[in-house]
Backbone:
């Protein structure tokens, strides 16, 4: 039985991940931690979790906890992950894996030294709709892939407009702007489909002035077999201009789908146009957590690890490095 502890039982754990730990065979949520003990106790009572803590070290050293999920903002990932690893326990880390690639390497080095597995919450690697896209590509439904186009446009939040931006756009806490929070899912999924990115060229700027992090990114990247990707991410457009698309074009057709809105997957090739439902699960991390539990129980392999996730952090660092040069 994998008895989990959660460090940082905030919003992401309410629906996306937390409930899944008790729904999967061979898995149980044993303890939760939040710096505010009252909120930790409230979470534990609502989800029938046996134990709660206000100090991470107490949860990490709990003898009844044998695996830990870190769901804090990225600025705390490396420190907590390495502490968990040194305690000899597997760790599952929210995305992005850490503030930057350098921290990812420190986590993976500690894991290798202590012979402890690391997993990261890039759950699209295990979701049925996204696996369908992979199957279509692998089965040459669009022939040989030539290039990929990503477009993610979102409007600023009310808090950002009124000068009260969240930690998600504080580079000291999140690693960067919304690009780090959202584009990481897209870049990691493309790594899953096509392997590591070999070359990056990019421009990052701030258009809105609502916060110091970048809010516009344009990037080009190269995979093996001369597959070329291009992406445009803007987080300061009008609401009406919102967009969430990835289009993969091959020499015999194309596949178009969304990353976050779970719209239908559209395949267009010589046979015509087909749509496939991309259903959003009740708990979007369920499928990946199930694979992690199976991996820990010696019954399978997780598609998302510290090694794969570090590659995504490396690409993100490369994309924004010119923007942050001299800003430290």
Residues:
């Amino acid at each position: 039985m994998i008895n989990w502890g959660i460090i940082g039982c905030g919003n992401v754990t309410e629906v996306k991940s937390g409930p899944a730990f008790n729904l999967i065979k061979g898995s149980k949520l044993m303890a939760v931690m939040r710096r505010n003990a009252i909120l930790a106790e409230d979470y534990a009572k609502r989800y029938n979790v046996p134990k709660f803590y206000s100090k991470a070290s107490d949860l990490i050293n709990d003898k009844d906890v044998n695996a830990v999920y870190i769901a804090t903002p990225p600025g705390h990932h490396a420190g907590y992950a390495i502490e968990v690893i040194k305690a000899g326990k597997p760790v599952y880390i929210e995305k992005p894996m850490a503030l930057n690639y350098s921290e990812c390497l420190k986590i993976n080095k500690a894991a290798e030294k202590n012979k402890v597995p690391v997993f990261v919450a890039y759950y699209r690697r295990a979701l049925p709709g996204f696996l369908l896209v992979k199957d279509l590509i692998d089965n040459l439904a669009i022939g040989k892939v030539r290039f990929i186009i990503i477009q993610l446009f979102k409007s600023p939040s009310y808090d950002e407009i009124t000068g009260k931006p969240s930690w998600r756009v504080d580079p000291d806490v999140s690693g960067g702007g919304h690009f780090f929070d959202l584009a990481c899912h897209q870049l990691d999924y493309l790594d899953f489909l096509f392997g590591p990115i070999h070359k990056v060229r990019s421009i990052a700027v701030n258009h809105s002035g609502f916060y110091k992090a970048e809010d516009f990114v344009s990037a080009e990247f190269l995979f093996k077999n001369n597959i070329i990707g291009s992406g445009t991410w803007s987080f300061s457009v009008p609401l009406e201009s919102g967009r969430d698309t990835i289009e993969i074009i091959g020499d015999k057709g194309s596949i178009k789908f969304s990353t976050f809105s779970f719209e239908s997957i559209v395949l267009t090739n010589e046979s015509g146009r087909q749509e496939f439902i991309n259903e959003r699960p009740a708990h979007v991390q369920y499928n990946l957590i199930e694979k992690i539990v199976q991996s820990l129980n010696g019954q399978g392999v997780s598609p998302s690890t510290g090694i794969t996730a570090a590659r995504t952090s490396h690409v993100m660092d490369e994309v924004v490095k010119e923007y942050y040069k001299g800003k430290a």
